[in-house]
Fold this sequence. Notes:
By secondary structure, the chain is α/β, with parallel strands linked by helices. It has two domains: 6-157, VC0802-like (2-Layer Sandwich); 179-219 and 228-383, Rossmann fold (3-Layer(aba) Sandwich), CATH 3.40.50.150. The protein has helices at 17-26, 45-54, 73-81, 109-128, 179-188, 206-216, 237-248, 265-277, 317-331, 380-383; strands spanning 6-11, 30-35, 38-43, 60-69, 95-102, 141-148, 151-157, 196-199, 258-262, 284-288, 301-305, 335-341, 356-362, 365-374. It has a seven-stranded mixed β-sheet with strand order 2-3-1-4-7-6-5, covered by helices on one side. A seven-stranded mixed β-sheet has the order 10-9-8-11-12-14-13, covered by helices on one side.
Amino acid sequence: MNTDNLHIQIxxxxxLEPILAEEIKKLGGKNVEIKTRAVNCEGDLGFLxxxxxxxxxxxxxxxxIYEFKAFNEHKFYDKLxxxxxxxxxxxNQSFAIxxxxxxxxxxxxxxxxxxxxxxxxxxxxxxxxxxxxxxxKNPDIKFNLHIDRDFVTVSLDSSGEPxxxxxxxxxxxxxxxxxxxxxxxxxxxxxxxxxxxxDPMCGSGTILIEAAMxxxxxxxxxxxxxxxxxxxxxxxxxxxxxxxxxxINRIKxxxxxxxxxxxxxxxxxxxxxxxxxxEMEDVIxxxxxxxxxxxxxxxxxxxxxxxxYDERISIxxxxxxxxxxxxxxxxxxxxxxxxxxSDLQAVKKIGLRPSRKVKLYNGKLETRFLQYEMxxxxxxSKNNEPS
Length: 387
């Protein structure tokens, strides 16, 4: 593997590709190219370590190591058997395979995974008279198999556990928002740690913690114990330590306030446990408060939140969203607010026209991430017409 110029594919969620591309450029990626749910780029081994440790909107970081065409499963197996797997793993290491198959020739991803496993095991058995173990739960080496029609790509997964598993979430609510999605929403919303931040329906606190991490320039994976690349044959421990030190030295003090409200004491308790796990008690404040009875206390203020969906909690949605709109208008003048919702009819009851709409997915739910600008005075009648 040429570690000076790696071709890297970084997976993300739909709608976050431009945000991820900007992150990758800032971290030093070359030839950055936006794809669907992914960003491709080039960089060296140190850059690969850096993006795993620091990129907030990356879900998984892959390094393609083998590409070929196969028209049937025999050809597929033969090609894989001829590959030098011992360049990438030792015979005494365990491995696992993730597969994605979009092909009329190969319809079962599980079957293709088994054929690839057989080829790897047979390669080692023939060459070393020994075989590596398959460990789907906690492998030393993780491979990614991607088949698009007859084109096969085998990649090394440099991350291991998906990168939204930051390591601070100890408690969660009914349908907590994914950490990568939360960070992406904050970056779309323009949160850069200047001013103050409010999540008025904070649940178990994910958006608050991601907001604090951005504000302090904390590396996204500062709490993670292990990356898959640490088991690679070419792993450079000294280089990874230097990269971590460099990123940690960039952490800064945050001058503003990050506040969360919720009416559910159980959720607030979960949020406090997670905030403590993220060592953010000095930075984030949570309060038992009904947003609909609140008024603006922080100036300037950005608000980003994830109201309860119909999938999660039974409430009267038309009435609920009307109350959001009323609270925006009466309690939060001169405020920029963003919310995410899958109920595209109910959000119309907010009674304000969103100034931006971004299509995102929360799990399998298609949602809109909506921006509302509340003005006071002359712009009010012009901008706040109901849609």
